[in-house]
Description:
By secondary structure, the protein is mainly beta. It has one domain. Helix content is 14%, strand content 55%. The protein is built from 2 helices and 9 strands, in the order H-E-E-E-E-H-E-E-E-E-E. Strand 7 and strand 8 form a beta hairpin.
Amino acid sequence: MKKILKTAFVLLAFQTLSAQQSSVEKSIFTFQTGLLGVWASNELRLSDEITLRSEIGLDTEIFDNDISETSGFFMAPTLNIEPRWYYNIKKREAKGKTTANNSANFLTLSFRYHPDWFVISNNDNIYVQEQLAIIPKWGIRRTIGNSGFNYEAGIGLGYRFYFLKQYGYSKNDSEATLDLHLRIGYTF
């Protein structure tokens, strides 16, 4: 009887320890790039499945303006903060799949701010209007092999607010916006 109780106690203790391992990382720093920009981010664990991601980067846009007969590209700064819920991280762990560096599916509410600080462009007189986008998103994040490399994809539909009065317009403006991202990066 004592052996059975000891065995049950050890198995219960092991089950508790393994359940504690299936959570998001305490803090990870990631550098990512995609077709349209570069970003550096930090994810800070708030609970076993929730992180707070803060990000700074340069978004890139390629444009072709028929009116002014100009075309080119520009890069402008962006700041992003988003709580992320990695809703299937425990399920992935239970199936023996990797959860390293928060490899799981997630839901998030992204708050993306584009300030009018500076623009890097191949054309003069290009600026980005100050704007804020609030976008609920679904995404996936996966680690590539046993390395620090990862990829991330996400999609969401939200709302963007343009702060136009400071540029001489009579009122600010807003519109629906689609956010689609595909990035590859490295977690330190």
